[in-house]
Design brief:
- The chain is α+β, with helices and mostly antiparallel strands and 331 residues long.
- It folds into two domains: 123 residues, Arc Repressor Mutant, subunit A, CATH 1.10.10; 175 residues, Jelly Rolls, CATH 2.60.120.280.
- Helices cover 45% and strands 15% of the residues.
- The strands form two sheets. A five-stranded mixed sheet has the order 1-3-8-5-6. The chain has a five-stranded antiparallel sheet with strand order 2-9-4-7-10, covered by helices on one side.
- A hairpin with a 2-residue loop joins strand 5 and strand 6.
- Helix 1 runs parallel beside helix 10.
Length: 331
């Protein structure tokens, strides 16, 4: 061994791969909620501090931020992050604003309406001319409300961030509903949580009607098959790291695997197993794109038995190896 140089990179790769294998052997589960590479904001005020915004909310469950042109108190760019609360926004004069969520880039925005459920990886570049309203709230704000918030307002889709490009006239038409919410959160001395919740709920009802008029996205949403699909998707989003079979989710939903598979097929045109694979793939794409982790580490975090298995899975669904996919985003 004397005189031979040690390849430190090779040793590091071996240690990471071995670490992943031993963690599997000892039954350790990945903890994506504590990913140090992608900040996770559970509290609204922590997120406001990170933007950074000079404002804070007196109510930890809700806040409406008014975006003004040339607002020097906020960064124009926010690096990728996750958040544990809902988000809805109405923006105009967006100019060169660019938004990235999960593996999707959105550009060429002028005026738009946006809805987002918790958990997505999100980053943005804000044009200094942009203005509008951004509302953040936690599910607990509507603990009094039945039916389920996601079922009543399906634009809060845990699979996607829903963007609707709108005209300046439509922006002016929708603006009063956001101003109503802003008026409640802008005066903490007179604010009550119930008044704010009702203002948001009233706004959501009006926005739902506006969105229905703009597209047919909600067609068929209230069918039993579609409702079961939504419940299935929520469970997959929560358990996809540890549960990879349709049978496991059917058990949680108290239905047979065949019934679940048929409902998913009828409502989405997809196989039930494909929903699980798509969720795993979405997380894989985010980790490859937004973190410096090597493939052995990513394979472990996604609960694959080894990097080779992960590589085969990724190429099957994308046509690219993980490294080929990452190379697309290198400048």
């Amino acid at each position: 061994m004397a005189g031979k140089r040690v390849d430190l990179r090779a040793v590091t790769r071996m240690l990471v791969a071995f670490s992943g294998k031993t963690r599997h052997l000892f039954g350790m589960k990945p903890d994506r909620s504590h990913d140090e590479q992608i900040p996770f904001f559970q509290e609204i005020n922590d997120f406001l501090a990170a933007i950074p915004s000079p404002y804070r909310t007196a109510d930890p469950l809700v806040y409406c931020l008014r975006v003004r042109p040339d607002d020097t108190g906020m960064n124009n760019y926010m690096a990728p992050f996750r958040k544990g609360f809902y988000f809805m926004g109405l923006v105009t004069n967006a100019g060169s604003t660019r938004i990235t969520y999960d593996s999707t880039d959105v550009t060429r925005l002028d005026s738009f309406l946006v809805f987002q459920a918790p958990g997505h990886i999100y980053s943005f570049y804000r044009d200094s001319s942009a203005e509008g309203f951004l509302i953040y709230f936690k599910r607990e704000l509507f603990s009094f409300y039945k039916p389920d918030l996601d079922e009543e307002f399906p634009f809060f889709d845990i699979r996607h961030t829903n963007f609707f490009r709108i005209s300046q006239a439509r922006y002016q038409e929708l603006r009063p509903w956001f101003e109503l919410v802003f008026s409640q959160t802008d005066h903490p001395s007179t604010q009550t949580q119930m008044k704010t919740a009702l203002a948001i709920l009233l706004s959501l009802v009006q926005l739902k009607e506006a969105v229905k008029a703009m597209s047919d996205w909600e067609q068929g949403f209230s069918t039993p098959q579609r409702l079961l699909l939504q419940k299935y998707i929520r469970l997959v989003d929560h358990y996809y790291l540890e549960k990879r079979t349709v049978e496991e989710y059917a058990s949680l939903l108290a239905v047979t695997p065949n019934h679940l598979s048929q409902a998913v097929k009828d409502a989405s045109g997809k196989r039930a197993l494909s929903v699980i694979a798509e969720r795993v793939l979405k997380e894989a794409q985010s980790l490859i794109r937004f973190t410096p982790y090597d493939m052995a580490e990513i394979a472990w975090r996604l609960n694959f038995s080894d990097p080779a298995h992960f590589g085969k899975f990724f190429k099957k669904h994308t046509g690219l190896t993980p490294l080929e996919y990452r190379s697309q985003f290198k400048k």
